[in-house]
Amino acid sequence: MANTDLERKYFFKKQASEDWVDITKAFLGVKVLGISGFGELGDAVNIYNEQWQESQEEDFLITGASGKIVRKNIDLSMNIIISRRYVDEGLHDFFDEQDIYDKFVGELLETDFYVYSEYTGMYAHVVCNKSFKPTTTDLQRGAKSHILVTIPLHCLDKPTRIVKECSSGQQTNQN
User: Fold this and answer.
1) How far apart are CA 101 and CA 141, in angstroms?
2) Residue 64: how many other CB atoms lie within 10 Å
3) Which of 2, 43, 89, 153 has the fewest CB atoms inside 10 Å of its own CB, making it the most exposed?
4) pLDDT, tens digit, for every residue of 108-167?
5) Is residue 59 part of a domain?
6) 3-state secondary structure string, the chain?
7) Phi and psi at residue 68, in whole multiples of 5°?
């Protein structure tokens, strides 16, 4: 029997108008171990500040018509593992971790996409614009074969919380 842990937890879609797709369903044998960084804030990009040698007090200015701080977009880290232990036993002999890794990287990371975490209730429009390589590539080890990789994802906008109905019937606030 296949290990079904981590199903229905992480989703993706290529276009904003599409439906969310479970990563574990789209890519056989792939499990997302976690996506970190959704709660981070980037550095401010529209603040000028200067401290002078005669004072501890700093001068600062927030630029822009809104008067609000604008921040750099953050990066997320998506940790995945690819292994035949996550598929039905009848498929073990035909499963190739390297082929699935190549398919995952080729199809999902070929362009920008949206990623959603059921854990945080947040989604982000992302692109993989940095290099990466597998942390571990243990192949030709039967049921113990696996590829473990951390993929850097750059957010193209601020991550957004998906609005859900509260038990009172009122919607919760978005970011």
Assistant:
1) 16
2) 11
3) 43
4) 999 999 999 999 999 999 999 999 999 988 887 777 889 999 999 999 999 999 876 555
5) no
6) CCCCCCCCCEEEECCCCCCCEEHHHHCCCEEEEEEECCCCCCCECCEEEEECCCCCCEEEEECCCCCCCCECCCEEEEEEEECHHHCCHHHHHHCCHHHHHHHHHHHHCCCCEEEEECCCCEEEEEECCCCCCCCEEECCCHHHCEEEEEEEEEECCCCEECCCECCCCCECCCC
7) -105, 150
pTM of the model: 0.83
- Give one word for 153, left, alpha or beta, with left for phi > 0 and alpha for psi -120 to 50: beta
**How far is 12 from 128, CA to CA, in rounded Å?**
14
Domain count across the chain: 1
- Per-residue pLDDT of 65-110, as tens digits, reads 999 999 999 999 999 999 998 888 777 778 899 999 999 999 999 9
CATH number of the structural domain spanning residue 74: 2.40.30.200
Whether 50 is covered by a domain: the verdict is: no
